[in-house]
Design a protein that fits this description.
By secondary structure, the chain is α/β, with parallel strands linked by helices. The protein folds into 2 domains: 6-134, NAD(P)-binding Rossmann-like Domain (Rossmann fold), CATH 3.40.50.720; 138-334 and 365-388, Dihydrodipicolinate Reductase, domain 2 (2-Layer Sandwich), CATH 3.30.360. The chain has 10 helices and 17 strands. β2 (37-45), α2 (51-57) and β3 (61-63) form a beta-alpha-beta unit. The radius of gyration is 21 Å and the shape is globular. The N and C termini lie far apart (52 Å).
Length: 398
């Protein structure tokens, strides 16, 4: 007789693109992973209304009242996918109400908000926190982390990371992602957050200094939309054409020093024509190199300096072997490849194992609010470096 698992009632905040990705994860995670708790899709809360979203995805209730939902006695886990400026108020209220809290990246739009979320998590140590840096859920990136930890590339000399998209051309309306009061930053918090997390995740090192940052807004005004459909290409413009100022960056690049002494470079942009979701990282070590590109997410490239000259070259590893690659045992046979949505299902399994007291069964760590706060400090250091045209020591960014 299978034991009855405790329910974990989830309240999802935000019914947009990430709301869909997380709903898909909760719908599927218990079907593919053995979990200590049973996720229940209890309530979806969106101030613009979520009745149709709830019906489509199978949420039991829909609400527009975020305070009541965050405090509801029957809710165990609050999961935040709202625009960045709403992360802190919801997360702090939920932690103070005794909930576990998951939140989309970046942790917040500003370092002040991120700090408040971290401090609230510190004040409630028995409640789990989790940040959806979803690319940690890609088996190939998790394998890269394992290979570094196993010493396969030795001492790290360089990390080279880019996150290049091209969706933000001049015809894209003034979405929340272009408003500093709602997003905090543009490509920087949206995309550099991912590759800074990936750098620390794969190398196991921290960033200690930042310099040479360039931060730019190329498209300074955009047409004000009539509505935003919760996804990047869904906004509509009415008959009345008005323009508003863009108050965030379109692109930010910067250099950094790693705690192991190596150097790193980061580039994020939404204006790299032809690059659709080109999230890529390369790590060069004393004994070899690793490189990964999300647009080929199932492959990891590995170069071993110890290969003899006649066959030296990059090895292309298909990371779908259930006996060797993280998360894959839950899914399909070799080379029946995974996609973007699987990263969220994989991370949801980690979240629910942590909540259910099975942290020892977690194969790949997901970021806590503390980890994501460290990433937010790096983002802030890059902004300061760009504004002051200077080197910034992370010890000066709290
Ligand atoms: C838009 O840049 C976006 O949706 C990001 O916000 C996500 O984090 C990324 O996974 C895909 O692109």
């Amino acid at each position: 007789m299978a034991e009855t698992k405790k329910d974990c009632n989830v309240a999802l905040f935000g019914a947009g693109f990430m709301g869909r990705a997380h709903s898909n994860a909760y719908l599927n995670v218990a079907k593919f992973f053995d979990l200590p708790v049973r996720p229940v899709m209890h309530t979806v809360c969106d101030i613009l209304g979520a009745d149709a979203f709830a019906a489509n995805w199978g949420w039991q209730h829909a609400s527009t009242d975020w305070r009541a939902t965050a405090a509801a006695d029957e809710v165990d886990l609050v999961d935040i996918t709202t625009p960045n400026h709403q992360h802190a108020p919801v997360a702090v209220a939920a932690l103070e109400a005794g909930k576990h809290v998951a939140c989309e990246k970046p942790l917040a739009g500003t370092l002040d908000d991120a700090r408040a979320m971290k401090q609230a998590a510190d004040a409630h140590p028995d409640q789990r926190t989790h940040v959806w840096f979803s690319y940690r859920g890609c088996p190939a990136l998790a394998l890269a982390r394992k290979m570094v930890r196993d010493g396969k590339i030795g001492r790290i000399f360089h990390v080279r990371a880019q996150y290049l998209q091209d969706w933000a051309g001049p015809d894209v309306p003034l979405l929340w992602r272009f408003k500093g009061t709602e997003s905090g930053s543009g490509a920087h918090g949206d995309l550099n957050a991912h590759i800074v997390d990936a750098c620390c995740f794969v190398t196991g090192e921290q960033i200690t200094e930042v310099c040479g940052a360039i931060m730019e807004t190329y498209i300074k005004r955009r047409v004000i939309p009539e509505s935003e459909a919760g996804n990047i290409k869904g906004a509509t413009v009415g008959d009345k054409i008005e323009y508003g100022d863009v108050t965030v960056d379109d692109a930010v690049s910067f250099l950094a020093r790693l705690s192991g002494g190596g150097s790193a470079s980061f580039e994020a942009t939404r204006l790299a024509a032809g690059r659709k979701n080109a999230n890529r990282i390369e790590i060069n070590g004393e004994k070899g190199s690793l490189r990964w590109d999300f647009e080929d997410m199932n492959w990891l490239w590995y170069y071993n300096v110890e290969d003899d000259a006649e066959r030296a070259g990059w090895q292309k590893i298909m990371c779908t072997d259930a006996t060797a690659h993280p998360y894959v045992a839950a899914w399909w046979p070799d080379a029946h490849i995974l996609g973007y949505e699987h990263g969220f299902v994989n991370l949801a399994s980690t979240l629910l194992k942590n909540i259910g007291g099975a942290a020892d069964a977690v194969e790949v760590p997901a970021p806590t609010f503390q980890d994501a706060y460290e990433t937010q400090r790096v983002l802030e250091a890059a902004v300061l470096s760009a504004q002051n045209r200077s080197w910034i020591d992370l010890s000066d960014v709290k």
